[in-house]
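Reviewer 2 asked us to include a model.

Predict the structure of this chain.
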Amino acid sequence: MANNQNENKNQLQIQLRPEVADGKYSNLAMIGHGPNEFLMDFIFAAPGMPQAPVVSRIIMSPENAKQLMFALTDNIKKYEAQFGEIKPRNAKAGVN
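Predicted model (structure tokens):
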């Protein structure tokens, strides 16, 4: 029983605030980095519009960015196993 109590103390309780729950749609990402962080801007580019707003900016340590890469790779493999290969269009993510 004591072991279960220790496990519960180590669990992270994730909170999803209502103002964040709806999410933001992004169809373009710009990624930059320095020695201590990765900066990811998620952008919504609407067809025919001259400006594209940044809808979210995420700043991560290099270690966390690499963990995100592993998680995305794993989830894309699982998605493709279930729904078929994702075939990229001519869109490309920006890299600075």
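The chain is about 35% helix and 20% strand. The mean pLDDT is 89. We have added this to the supplementary material.
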